[in-house]
Specification:
The protein is 34% helix and 22% strand. Strand 5, helix 6 and strand 6 form a beta-alpha-beta unit. Helix 2 runs antiparallel to helix 6 and helix 8 runs parallel beside helix 9. About 15% of the residues have low confidence.
């Protein structure tokens, strides 16, 4: 297991809707490391369509744009995303990541007993940092742990986090099945989030062991996940979550919407879960 944290001065912030985040930080991003960043820019005619991106402060928008550029630059040398265009990254990745925030806020304030402004969250199977890195930009008061099993992606995340200047992100290399049995990570997070990792009943076994009792598990899914949800209900109950709600969120994708599936964890996850690496995918609950 590899754990890394970038340590710079802590940012200050306050929370409001709308805009749903205001970042008051005066800290400066670290200067570019190893390679020069491509100066691609987002199309100004398309930015007007990015409703969540527009709610960010100018500094946060700059940080997101820097992330998009470095993602596309590194994507030329390693397979980080199938998307090759900056505007498409904004549509398919950034906007979808930010769209999680309003339903999560509404749900969390209704069902959980801690402040929404200082959450400890884990993004399981983050890949190139989606949605966790984008959420860390939008919510600088959160502590965000990015879990990723592939070394090359962790190297990219290290570079991106340092370049952007984020102080609230920790990168952990390892499999969810192993980390979920580690008491340093087990049932210590307010929220576990995952996007496009696996079907919901598998994802529940990856994520719910990380969530404290009273916290939430959020899965970002497609426009019509009803059958997947029905198939996962037994697994979610078995793993300690009893409340299941679906929130339709705006999307730039072909169907115009995606679904945030939010589960409240009200019981400890039985100690035998998660099972050994590879077992949840091969033999779903």
């Amino acid at each position: 297991m590899f754990v890394s944290r970038v340590g710079l001065p802590i940012c200050s912030w306050r929370f409001s809707l709308p805009p749903f985040i205001e970042h008051l930080s005066t800290s400066q991003a670290i200067k570019a490391l190893p390679r020069r960043i491509d100066t691609r820019t987002l199309s100004t005619s398309r930015v007007s369509n990015f409703s969540y991106f527009k709610t960010l402060t100018s500094r946060q928008r700059d940080q997101v744009s820097l992330y998009v550029n470095v993602l596309l630059d590194w994507n030329q040398r390693m397979n980080l995303t199938s998307v090759k265009d900056a505007n498409e990254v904004m549509e398919r990745h950034v906007e979808d990541s930010l769209a999680i925030l309003p339903p999560l806020q509404n749900y969390y304030l209704s069902h959980c007993n801690t402040s929404f402004e200082n959450l400890n969250i884990v993004d399981v199977g983050t890949g190139p940092g989606l949605p966790g890195l984008i959420l860390a930009i939008a919510c600088p008061g959160w502590n965000v742990t990015l879990v990723e099993s592939m070394n090359k992606r962790c190297i990219f995340l290290e570079h991106a986090v340092g370049l952007i200047g984020l102080t609230n992100v920790k990168i952990v290399r390892g499999r969810a099945e192993n980390l979920g049995q580690d008491f340093s990570f087990r049932e210590v997070f307010d929220v576990a989030i995952a996007r496009a990792v696996a079907e919901l009943r598998v994802l529940a076994e990856y994520c719910l062991p990380f969530v404290r009792v009273g916290g939430a598990f959020v899965a970002a899914k497609g426009h019509d996940p009803q059958e997947e949800v029905r198939n996962a209900e037994k697994a979610i109950q078995l793993l300690g979550a009893s409340v299941l709600q679906l929130f339709s969120v705006e999307s730039q994708g072909p169907y115009g919407k995606r679904t945030a599936i939010i589960c409240l964890k009200d019981r400890p996850t039985p100690r035998k879960y998660p099972r050994d690496p590879g077992t949840p995918a091969k033999a779903p609950l």
